[in-house]
User: Fold this.
Amino acid sequence: MDAGVPISDPVAGISIGLVKEPDRYILLTDIMGDEDHFGDMDFKVAGTGRGITGIQLDLKIDGINAEIIKATLDQAREARREILKIMLSTLRQPRRDISKTAPRLLTLKINPDKIGLLIGPGGKTIKGIQEATGAKIDIEDDGTVYISHSEAAGAEAAKLKVEALTEEVRVGKVYEGRVTSIKDFGAFIEILPGRDGLCHISELDDKYVGRVEDVCKVGDVLQVKVIAIDEHDRVKLSRKVLLREQHKADGGAPPMPPPLRRPPEGRPPRGEHERAPRGRE
Assistant:
């Protein structure tokens, strides 16, 4: 609970011991080493305030009757409830956020067609993610990916890398992409690894654009929104939509363009000599 694990009910356990003579017996609550060693029974009972969740019994005598079993369970219930009261007086419910130092097991679903992409040739890609983050990654045939790590930061870092590599482009989502190619009719922008889209010249700004180069050049990083994916799986992007949304949010003030970054001086822009992907018009 203190670590933020979302359990439904707190659980407490108690060990009940037994010393039995031919004509009488006594039950001992929360037995210690000597009582366990010299006694005749170690009856462990765990449960919530609503009932028993588990029992475990060690006996050194031939057996115990129904009367002893009933008395043991009654005595364990009272002790368990007392422990639960103390626990709940300290912390009533699990904390909202899981502790940063608590181990993590994250689950996400990817397109099964992208399993090979995530694994990479000879497992190179997935091994690289595991080495970079310290996480352990397991993949099921249906596309379920399990990410485990001793710390939250490492698990989240691995999850982000998996998502970035296998993410599906979604209409309406905003991406930060890099301009890879410029044509007279618009700019091709890589929004995910190996996946780009066309931002038509009419969608580059909320005012008239005479030349694409007036707004961006190869290597620039800017925010765009996916406005459509056609029947050929070609992605259509818009910067104009974001400008208008920001303009509206600012109450009619002159819009500030979404962030646009350019590569450092001296670094050749990536994709400067790339050709437009096949099938694009």
